[in-house]
Amino acid sequence: MFVPSTAGVFASTASDAGSLPAEPVRHMLFGTPSAVQVTIQQLHHLNYAEPNDWSQLLPTGRPNEVMAILTKRVRAA
Fold it and tell me: Residue 73: which residues within 8 A CB-CB, separation 6 or more?
C-alpha cells in the first residue's frame, strides 16, 4: 500500500524528463475513515494517484480520525 520514497510516479513533460531530478512529495490525509476513503477515490478519478499507492488507514489517536499517506516523486521546476 505505502509507496516508499524511492518509488513512485514521475510528473514531467517530455522536454524536461531528463533535466530535473525527481523529488519526493508526501501527501497526508486526516479525517474520518469514510472521508479519507472518499478523498482517495476522488484523487483516483482525477488520475492523480492509484488507491493502492496510499498507505493503509492509520489511527491518529483522536476519536474516529485516521490518516493516510502517499509519497510521489515529481520533477520540480
Answer: 5, 7, 8, 9, 10, 22, 23, 24, 25
Grid cell 472518499 in the structure block, residue: 38
Q: Which three cell numbers stand for residue 44?
A: 483516483
Contacts of 47 (CB under 8 A, 6+ apart): none
CA 4, distance to chain mean position in Å, is 11
- What is residue 38's DSSP assignment? H
Reported as a pLDDT band with limits 50, 70 and 90, residue 54 is very high
Question: What value does the mean pLDDT take over residues 28-42?
Answer: 98
In angstroms, rounded to a whole number, what is the distance separating the alpha carbons of residues 44 and 41? Answer: 5
